């Protein structure tokens, strides 16, 4: 979810669900130790609960970054052992860490010693051609002994060579039954299933054998899924905002971010383009909000035009007319 679940995205998702645990995009230890900490860790209180996902492989550095995350108010610190990208592999972290479970255990132990909030691990069921349940079972057992009690398990192998990250999310076969088996063998642990879940009906199905379900790109592309979660899965009052009200609140947020941080509204609007998925004229609404020619317009005007879905066509037509005709 790199470059997707930033704080603007999380603000949008929090308008849809108050109870679901949100995650940051993966932040590397190097980015925090040698970069702009506020840029990476700044978030609003209304995003909570939110987990900070870290990428790294050095126990001392991860402990220091976990401590920063706790100081900045994150609810949970998550170690990513599932990302298969080449850039992450060059840094010897992400999914490649599954080859060294004792190293992961050292990292988890150091992080647990550094913070009082939960330390969790997100990982795959295997890497490359290792297609053995015993592999993931032993990985979980080793890391659990170091103090981790929650495992978010992407129910696919990660291919470190031969597949790009997008292919790694679709080509390796899903094996949710292995995640179910982990819960049976480690009943004292919190086991969360990830991978291939695209509907709330599937969420309900998986919640019977495991403790939780994580949605990534499906939640990003079809955010209205989140609107049901508080009532359906947490037994609390669901959010009552309709799509129009959420869009208006996002426009208010765009103005606030522009005033306080100089953030251009398209950087925020890109995260809500799936809001009207499945509704009539949703495609046109999405095109208006994504029209680069409107960047200088006020977001409330773009909202009005998006709802009628006509302005970009009119602008294109006007641009082709001679100046005298444009004034008629």
TrEMBL record:
<dbReference type="GO" id="GO:0102266">
    <property type="term" value="F:tRNA-dihydrouridine20a synthase activity"/>
</dbReference>
<dbReference type="InterPro" id="IPR035587">
    <property type="entry name" value="DUS-like_FMN-bd"/>
</dbReference>
<feature type="binding site">
    <location>
        <begin position="194"/>
        <end position="196"/>
    </location>
    <ligand>
        <name>FMN</name>
    </ligand>
</feature>
<dbReference type="InterPro" id="IPR013785">
    <property type="entry name" value="Aldolase_TIM"/>
</dbReference>
<dbReference type="Pfam" id="PF01207">
    <property type="entry name" value="Dus"/>
</dbReference>
<feature type="binding site">
    <location>
        <position position="53"/>
    </location>
    <ligand>
        <name>FMN</name>
    </ligand>
</feature>
<feature type="site" description="Interacts with tRNA">
    <location>
        <position position="80"/>
    </location>
</feature>
<feature type="binding site">
    <location>
        <begin position="216"/>
        <end position="217"/>
    </location>
    <ligand>
        <name>FMN</name>
    </ligand>
</feature>
<feature type="binding site">
    <location>
        <position position="122"/>
    </location>
    <ligand>
        <name>FMN</name>
    </ligand>
</feature>
<keyword id="KW-0288">FMN</keyword>
<comment type="similarity">
    <text>Belongs to the dus family.</text>
</comment>
<dbReference type="GO" id="GO:0050660">
    <property type="term" value="F:flavin adenine dinucleotide binding"/>
</dbReference>
<keyword id="KW-0560">Oxidoreductase</keyword>
<protein>
    <recommendedName>
        <fullName>tRNA-dihydrouridine(20/20a) synthase</fullName>
        <ecNumber>1.3.1.91</ecNumber>
    </recommendedName>
</protein>
<keyword id="KW-0285">Flavoprotein</keyword>
<comment type="function">
    <text>Catalyzes the synthesis of 5,6-dihydrouridine (D), a modified base found in the D-loop of most tRNAs, via the reduction of the C5-C6 double bond in target uridines. Specifically modifies U20 and U20a in tRNAs.</text>
</comment>
<feature type="site" description="Interacts with tRNA">
    <location>
        <position position="169"/>
    </location>
</feature>
<dbReference type="InterPro" id="IPR001269">
    <property type="entry name" value="DUS_fam"/>
</dbReference>
<keyword id="KW-0547">Nucleotide-binding</keyword>
<keyword id="KW-0819">tRNA processing</keyword>
<dbReference type="InterPro" id="IPR004653">
    <property type="entry name" value="DusA"/>
</dbReference>
<feature type="active site" description="Proton donor">
    <location>
        <position position="83"/>
    </location>
</feature>
<dbReference type="GO" id="GO:0010181">
    <property type="term" value="F:FMN binding"/>
</dbReference>
<dbReference type="GO" id="GO:0102264">
    <property type="term" value="F:tRNA-dihydrouridine20 synthase activity"/>
</dbReference>
<feature type="domain" description="DUS-like FMN-binding">
    <location>
        <begin position="1"/>
        <end position="301"/>
    </location>
</feature>
<dbReference type="InterPro" id="IPR018517">
    <property type="entry name" value="tRNA_hU_synthase_CS"/>
</dbReference>
<keyword id="KW-0820">tRNA-binding</keyword>
<feature type="site" description="Interacts with tRNA; defines subfamily-specific binding signature">
    <location>
        <position position="283"/>
    </location>
</feature>
<keyword id="KW-0694">RNA-binding</keyword>
<comment type="similarity">
    <text>Belongs to the Dus family. DusA subfamily.</text>
</comment>
<feature type="site" description="Interacts with tRNA; defines subfamily-specific binding signature">
    <location>
        <position position="286"/>
    </location>
</feature>
<dbReference type="GO" id="GO:0000049">
    <property type="term" value="F:tRNA binding"/>
</dbReference>
<feature type="binding site">
    <location>
        <position position="154"/>
    </location>
    <ligand>
        <name>FMN</name>
    </ligand>
</feature>
<keyword id="KW-0521">NADP</keyword>
